[in-house]
Automatic annotation (TrEMBL):
It is found in: Late endosome membrane; Lysosome membrane. The keyword Transmembrane applies. Keywords: Electron transport, Endosome, Glycoprotein, Heme, Iron, Lysosome, Membrane, Metal-binding, Oxidoreductase, Translocase, Transmembrane, Transmembrane helix, Transport. The gene is Cyb561a3. Homodimer. Its main location: membrane. It comes from Calyptomena viridis (Lesser green broadbill). The keyword Ubl conjugation does not apply. This is Lysosomal membrane ascorbate-dependent ferrireductase CYB561A3. Its EC number is 7.2.1.3.
Length: 243
């Protein structure tokens, strides 16, 4: 009886969870924007450091928050009945929007590096980030071909579906890891030479570290929602679904 009571207390309604997760995602976007505006000088398109500031904002917004929203589309109970095409279009559209923001974020950092003569792709963060984007592009293209094109055979969709789900979660984990490592790398290079050192934990370091924790928390919540059995879309071929 105590076990059932504790399980019932943890049974959070999906709309409540989505409202909390959406608020957390907006908070992450607001905090990364405030960090770049207040401590890093704001935004511009002149190729300088303010151009770089678009990179973390676009990456967190696209690769984490918008991508996480796309991953949870099929957990909405309204998707469990009726035609799937509108939800497929929403899922693919959100993922495409996330991909566009991600590409713009890459353009910002490459423009900054090239204008300052800084080598590209030399750090673990850059390797992991570019690998995530490349995997994301392959995932979207394969998903579009398998699930949105009308001539894709049913056997191909059934074969590719678990692969698509696995790599979807993998990309989200890699996105979170890339963003967190990028925050750490930016703090390491910025908090020195005339500023308070990173190891002395100035206000900017506390703020950015908190941002990294919230991004990690957002990713874990999305992964938890994807793994929760009661929030998974019922199999249309199962006995319970037919009943």
């Amino acid at each position: 009886r105590c076990h059932h009571r504790s399980v019932a207390m943890l049974d959070i309604p999906f709309p409540t969870f989505c409202a909390f997760l959406g608020s957390l995602g907006l908070l992450c976007v607001a905090l990364v924007s405030a960090w770049c505006q207040h401590w890093r000088g704001g935004f511009s398109l002149d190729g300088g450091s303010r151009t770089f500031n678009w990179h973390p904002v676009l990456m967190v917004t696209g690769l984490v928050v918008l991508y996480g929203a796309a991953a949870l589309v099929y957990r909405i109970p309204s998707t469990w009945s009726g035609p799937k095409l509108p939800w497929k279009l929403l899922h693919g559209g959100l993922a495409l929007g996330a991909f566009i923001l991600t590409v713009l974020g890459l353009v910002a950092v490459f423009c900054f590096h090239n204008s300052h003569g800084t080598p590209n792709m030399y750090s673990l963060h850059s390797w992991m980030g570019l690998g995530t984007v490349l995997l994301f592009s392959c995932q979207w293209a394969a998903g579009f071909g398998a699930f949105l094109l009308p001539w894709a055979p049913a056997w191909l969709r059934e074969l590719y579906k678990p692969i698509h789900v696995f790599f979807g979660s993998t990309i989200l984990m890699m996105s979170v890891a890339s963003c967190v490592s990028g925050i750490n790398e930016k703090l390491f290079f910025s908090l020195k030479n005339g500023t308070t050192e990173y190891k002395l934990l100035p206000a900017e370091a506390v703020f950015a570290n908190t941002l990294g924790i919230l991004i990690l928390f957002f990713g874990l919540l999305v992964m938890g929602a994807l793994a929760r059995p009661s929030w998974k879309r019922p199999d249309s071929d199962s006995l319970d679904s037919r009943q």
